[in-house]
Design goal:
The protein has 303 residues and is mainly α. It contains 8 helices and 2 strands; from the N terminus they run H-H-H-H-E-H-H-H-H-E. The protein has helices spanning 4-30, 55-83, 91-113, 118-142, 154-180, 196-223, 228-253, 258-281, and strands spanning 149-150, 283-284.
């Protein structure tokens, strides 16, 4: 029987692995290596591995493909640890995290076969964000007995849901900005055709909305003397949002240097992690329930 502490450590490694594959994928695009292996699942029509003619771009793209196998190994270890533990409530999340990897690989193949179409590139990134969120919830849940009752007032829980939806909208629009900008992943890759300045401004406007909603939540949580876990989660998300905003503005006004764009992608991973943590932090042990908060969730929802 695998101890809960071991399950939690492996689940954390799963979060890290899912985040790293996003950053390394960004490095592939930013080095212009998106078509370093011009076909899929082979690197070329006649070779699984990159040929000398593909040079460094082929090695970079092929290396990123190989990292997928490491991610699969971590996901399999997570599933095995969960199924060999007493935490039956974690099984669905663990399996979902594993099944998302082949889906991501197939979508990556479609991305290559369509010549880095910006919309398939966007879908590839957004699916990664979903997997990061699932892995984060799995890890957080593995550190506690299970889902308890809502520990904040219902209007605040609704605001948290709104923040999560805004995070999703920011990331979706962020992929449109990327698909309209200069870092296509290959000189021959297409672009969305949108005005980069216009979509960048829309993206910034959504970020302002996100920061405003998070500030409002943090103030409301303190005003209603909500549990510390919820206040800390809102505070930490706000800090990450502000740091991400600074990186975004600096990269825009410095004409999108590759290293800052890569830092911005890493920031998107952190935003996803901390937003998932905020949603999780609104529920906890029944002993933390405020007097006039929501009624307890059903026992089915806590399993």
């Amino acid at each position: 029987m695998v101890r809960p502490s071991v399950v939690a450590r492996i689940a954390l490694l799963n979060v890290v692995a899912n985040g790293l594959i996003v950053v390394t994928g960004g490095a592939v695009r930013l080095t212009g290596s998106g078509l370093g292996c011009p076909t899929w699942p082979r690197c070329t029509d006649g070779s699984i591995t990159p040929t000398p003619e593909l040079a460094g771009h082929g090695l970079i793209e092929f290396g990123n493909r190989m990292l997928t196998f490491a991610l699969v190994g971590v996901a399999v270890a997570t599933v095995a640890a969960v199924f060999l533990s007493v935490r039956r409530d974690l099984r669905r999340l663990a399996v979902l995290s594993l099944l998302g990897i082949p889906a991501q690989a197939l979508l990556g193949g479609v991305t290559v076969l369509t010549g880095l179409n910006p919309w398939t590139v966007a879908a590839h990134f957004l699916l990664s964000m979903v997997l990061v969120a699932v892995a984060t919830v799995l890890w957080l849940r593995s550190r506690e007995p299970g889902v308890g009752q809502l520990i904040v007032r219902r209007p605040l829980a609704a605001l948290v849901t709104g923040i999560a939806a805004t995070v999703a909208a920011v990331e979706v629009l962020g992929t449109v900005v990327t698909g309209s900008g200069p870092h296509s992943g290959d000189p021959g890759a297409g672009r969305t055709g949108f005005d980069p300045q216009l979509v960048s401004q829309l993206h910034a406007d959504l970020v302002f909305l996100l920061v405003g909603l998070t500030v409002a939540l943090l103030v409301a949580l303190h005003a209603t003397d909500s549990p510390g876990r919820a206040r800390r989660a809102a505070r930490d998300l706000l800090v990450v949002e502000l740091a991400q905003g600074v990186i975004g503005y600096v990269q825009y006004f410095t004409h999108l240097p590759a290293l800052l764009v890569l830092a911005h992608m890493a920031g998107a991973v952190l935003i996803t992690v901390y937003a998932a943590r905020l949603v999780w932090a609104t529920r906890g042990p029944a002993s933390e329930l405020p007097v006039d908060a929501a009624a307890p969730v059903s026992s089915a929802a806590s399993r």
